[in-house]
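My main concern about presentation is that the manuscript never shows what a single data entry looks like. Each protein is reduced to its one-letter sequence and a matching series of backbone shape codes. For the editor and my fellow referees, an illustration may be useful. For illustration, here is how one protein appears when written out as sequence plus structure tokens:
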Amino acid sequence: MRNEMALRIEDYAIVGDTETVALVGNNGSIDWLCFPRFDSAACFAALLGDENNGRWLIAPAVATTRVDRRYRPGTLVLETDFETPEGAVRVVDCMLPREGSPDVIRLVEGLRGRVPMQLQLNPRFDYGHRVPLVSNVPGGAIAMAGPEALSLRTSVDLDVTNGSISSEFTVSEGDQVWFRLVWFPSHEGEPEQTDAAVALSRTEAWWRSWSERCSYQGPYRETVLRSLMTLKALTYAPTGGIVAAATTSLPEEIGGVRNWDYRYCWLRDGAFTIAALTRFGYTDEAIAMGAWLRRAVAGDPAQMQIMYGIGGEARLTEFELPWLSGYERSRPVRVGNAASDQFQLDVYGEVIAGAYSAAEAGVQPREDASKSPGLNLEAIIDTVERRWREPDEGIWEVRGERQHFTYSKFSAWYAVDRAIKFAETAGRDYPVEDWQRLRQEIHDDICQHGYDTDRQSFVQYYGGKALDASLLLIPGSGFLANDDPRIVGTVAAVEHELASGPFVSRYSTDEGVDGLAGSEGAFLICSFWLVNALAHVGRTDEAQRNLDALLALQNDVGLLSEEYDPEAKRLLGNFPQAFSHIGLLSSILALHEGFKGFKEA
């Protein structure tokens, strides 16, 4: 049963090939892997069920006394060391950045003594539902079901039983045993496999070359670099889009129903990521992501969605997988995301903000217009002008009644404000005076209806009293001066009501505004937003203390999920979460831009 083998979310690391990601537990088991894309059906889904739903375990066959793991410096090559009474072994995991068929490479190295090892490979296609036909072949085994197939190659003997592959072997000091698992369409036949040692060496060299491009040389370089590599691993190289996380349905509350599929590209995440990448020297990635964003939103701005598939697909139909028991019995397990049909006013501001951040950093598109159309600023602002007075589902994608969310109105203001700034440097005529009048109209409306004089704070939605962590994005935006009492009061109110120390909730789930049962953990990007807001209002010592506490939440290999439970002291939500790592990067910039930590351009 899953409860007997459950790992905490923080017990996982990732390896990836810039088109998909595998989650590797500190017990040597790959429990989640979708081939060939992030959003494909998983062939290992034990993460959301048990070993019968698919996994690939390589670990000592005897009790371990200690486990240590790390990434090789500047890479996404994972090393896990197992200490046993008989000796010590190392399992090295990686995925070669995609060149042909996707694969996973695993190397077992003998470090000391003589250690008995076990391999258990249960391929289960269609999210752990479909048991394949598995056959021995010379030098390995092949698993096949319908359109998909996996080929395992190794030098050890393999046993095949009931759709699963197993092996027992012994590793002595100095020994190396290789495994390479390749996915391929079953109608094409098994692809040729290159030498695994060469592939590992090339993977390591590729990531080190990529890491050397990081322009940040300040006091948090290793932390910054790990977050940037995580964002790179979550980026789908063929299109430039970034998924919110590598997983679906990891719960925001253990045993609860707040379980969503995050293997898609939110415009908001993309815009925020562009801003981060441009600040750390990764202009090629920022250009590619900006091109994905412009392609995704090309057309009528009134039809703009909040998220798309990694190729720009608009239809993300949500459904449930009843055969999966859920992570620690957190059900339902969902695929697809119905929030893609929501109206969220804030996306207009974030799309323009992403393009503005790139332009401000000097990043210019290189693609021709047929592949990467420019943003139609006038059409977007016309849509904002028509729709900014409408209620929406808001930044948090509530599934309750639409509201006039203050942050949504602020984002409409932000869209117009950044469009005006664009126009000032664009070298062409825009209706700037009309936009200035619209910007002032939205500003006045927010100050009149979104601010509570009794609370001395902006509020979650017009006419309400509740607060929302998204209000922490107003400081530093230019909406009001950072020392304005309304800004200072909002930061203080959110800190008092939604924060427990450095840990910030998105909003109070007791208010019922989101239309969902249960509660959730502290949202990590909101916690980083508090760091930034404290810095903006001059409370830098408190901001630094909060940042230190949040950095301590990274797991042993530097990864963060979506949320954190301060009482249970464990990570929650989908993993690794791009939003959390974006927040981490933004907070380091907010507090330490003064360091001369960036290479001269």
Remarks:
- Residues 595-601 have pLDDT under 50 and may be disordered.
- The first helix runs from residue 2 to 5.
- The chain has 14 helices and 26 strands.
- The longest strand covers residues 103-122.
